[in-house]
Amino acid sequence: MIIQAREVYKSFKNVDAVKGISLSIAQGQFVALLGPNGAGKTTMVEMIEGIQKPDKGEILISGKTWKGNEDELHHLIGLSLQETHFIDKLTVQETLRLFASFYGEKKARVTEVIQLINLEEKRKSYVVNLSGGQRQRLALGIALLNHPKVLILDEPTTGLDPNARRDIWRILLELKKQSNTSLLLTTHYMEEAEQLCDYIIIMNNGSILKEGTLDQLLNDENGSKTVEFTLEGIYDSIDDDEAFSEIRWNNNTQQGTVYLNDIEKDMISFLALLEKNNLHLKNLEIRRKSLDDLFTSLTGRHLDE
């Protein structure tokens, strides 16, 4: 394993940011830490990066702890934070050459990275004139200059528009094809984790709620299909039925959600339940369960809340 964390704890004053987390990442694996703001994702990543020290527990990078191995481990890792500050009056090419010099990389590597991050047309543009998405691609390019074995990205697409976000995804998917780099990605975007990562770790309040591949997570005991429905009329609540997972009801919107294991069999029973209680459907949608559905079933709230 390129990264191993064992029973890691971290607190700040009265806040328990990370509560006994253990995780492993194999070489070449793309792993997402998925959770809402305040889940402990950034704190966990900062400890893996060596920025923070665990109060308790152990973190190994390529089998070594940070203590006494800082120089070696820094050369294994490329990282990009939520926001990167550049020298405005340097061009894209000059910025990359500056950072490449820190690693002893040659100009040819700068050219490779500019192509990878698709900034060829902006190579001579000043950084101050780049869009938000272009600046984030530049930050990603800097993180890739030293051919890292581990790439750590802390919410790299937060604040970007959908097109800029997908530009970042395309770069990372191309990297996945071309190299054996491992990725540790923190995000609160479900689609980002689904599109990019082989393995997803769902965090909340400093703990791991659930982890696995996308298929493992979405085909758990809570059901593989989601039924969202709206009823005609006004109702304060919808009574659960023992035949179903908990029916989640929002009396403000008159909308409900129920998770069904066997859609053909359970849908008949669900409709019979509505008829029995003299409830009438206005709208109904059946879709595959999402990561947000899973998070909601575990915590009672959505990822973006």
Explain what this protein looks like in three dimensions.
It is a single chain. With 305 residues, the protein is of the alpha/beta class. The chain folds into 2 domains: 3-217, P-loop containing nucleotide triphosphate hydrolases (Rossmann fold); 225-299, Alpha-Beta Plaits. Helices cover 33% and strands 28% of the residues. It is built from 10 helices and 13 strands. It has helices at residues 41-49, 70-74, 92-103, 107-116, 132-144, 162-178, 190-196, 214-218, 263-276, 291-299; strands spanning 3-12, 15-25, 30-34, 56-61, 77-80, 150-154, 182-187, 199-204, 207-212, 225-232, 248-250, 255-260, 280-288. Strands 5-6-7-3-8-9 form a 6-stranded mixed sheet, sandwiched between helices. Strands 11-12-10-13 form a 4-stranded antiparallel sheet, with helices on one face. Strand 11 and strand 12 (255-260) form a beta hairpin. Helix 5 packs parallel to helix 6 (162-178). The longest helix is centred in the middle third of the chain and has 17 residues, at 162-178. The radius of gyration is 23 Å and the shape is elongated. The two termini are 34 Å apart.
